[in-house]
Amino acid sequence: MNDDPRPMIRSVLAERAGLPVDVDTLSDDADLFAAGMTSHASVNLMLALEDAFNLEFPDQMLTRGVFASISAIAAAIAELSATDAALPQDGGSR
Amino acid sequence: MGAHDEDSPAQGETGLDHRRPPPRPLGVGLPGPRAFALDQRRGSAYRSGKLMTEVRHATSAEASFRDELLARGLLIESGVPGLYGRGPAFERIRRGFDMLVTREAEADAAESLSFPPLLPRRHLEAIGYLSSFPHLAGTVFGFEGSEADAAVQAQRASRHEDWSETQRMTEVALVPAACYPVYPAVAARGPLEQDGIVVDAGGGWVFRHEPSEDPTRLQAFHQREIVRLGPPSAVLAWRDGWCERGLALLRGLGLDAERDTASDAFFGRGGRMLAADQQERQLKFELLVPITGEEPTAVASFNYHHEHFAEIFGLTLAGGGPVHTACLGFGQERVVLALLQAHGMDPAAWPAEVARELWAA
Q1: Do B277 and A47 touch (CB under 8 A)?
Q2: Tens of pLDDT, residues B36-50
Q3: Is 0.95 exceeded by the ipTM?
Q4: Domains, chain A, ranges and CATH?
Q5: Which of B87, B247, B325, B348 could serve as B73's disulfide partner, Cβ 3.0–4.6 Å?
């Protein structure tokens, strides 16, 4: 699965991150905390991303840095998707 | 300021009016008639299969320390884990330490304010405590109902069964951190002078719902809190300065204290994020002293809140600019326990320099 997660991340951000600015005005690398996301809002964002992408962030990813920008979130999701793909859910071969 | 608005129309009704209407439905659960007759109803704790929160058990070192504290009358057993009376020797140490902090705080020209161990529930809600620490909060509930309800409640209570069904939330909650009442009280006075202020909230009772057999983890204890409210740089400098002063103060009592960055016991997986965030931004320092655990125990914390409380309660500076806040808290019972552990269970035999620090003045 190589779908670009960023459009979905942007839509989750718009709904759940409590940002005081329009998400469309933010670049992929913009610091979301600098844009006004509180630490409590980042928790809501984390939970909403788990719902939207049907995944669970492991404990070591539950940090400020992982949720600091759209590209950081996309990288974390890509990493988790790659890990999932590596699991032998499909018998280990495609 | 929204935090004092009241929307409850029932406030005028007090006293012995037995004919007051039954409580309004909460808007959750089953509508319509009750599924069971009055004397067959069970409370929520019964339905969830337990009457008490799970208790954290003591290690053998913690258990023997607790047993000795009880045997010597330093603490007094209540039957509930984490809830103890204090004997005179214990209180004398605690008060001595309290005075030591007071003397150290004199340099701050702090304004002394005292508050009860209850706070308006709305303040706890506004602070966001139920998001961060839903597992630790304690809310006061009170009876609301008819005489028949009261009879059922009394009957269940006499059998020590769950009688929560006839209880409803009141406007008050137990204070979980002794600094919480300070922010709304100071905000209500209007803008702060340019340098801000220091408030000494004294040694207030606080409650944490975390029953444990470890005597260093109490449900009700004294937190000696001092709060700084003012411009960001002054507040941060005060917090960092006090961290050093606190360290010197504890070491002056012969305690092997160390300082470390720390995080609060936030709830759940989201709490892990909040804790990591708190660590990364160095919002919390703790002073740690060996007591009975394998790891040293936190006996004091120094917390920088940025604009959190200022924004919630509308704290402003007379000349403009943001208000930040910080607080420090000594867990007084933990300090006493650390002293007993370090110097022995008989305070009369403690080193002279420790006795002088605590009781000389």
Answers
A1: no
A2: 444 444 444 444 444
A3: no
A4: 6-84 (1.10.1200.10)
A5: B87
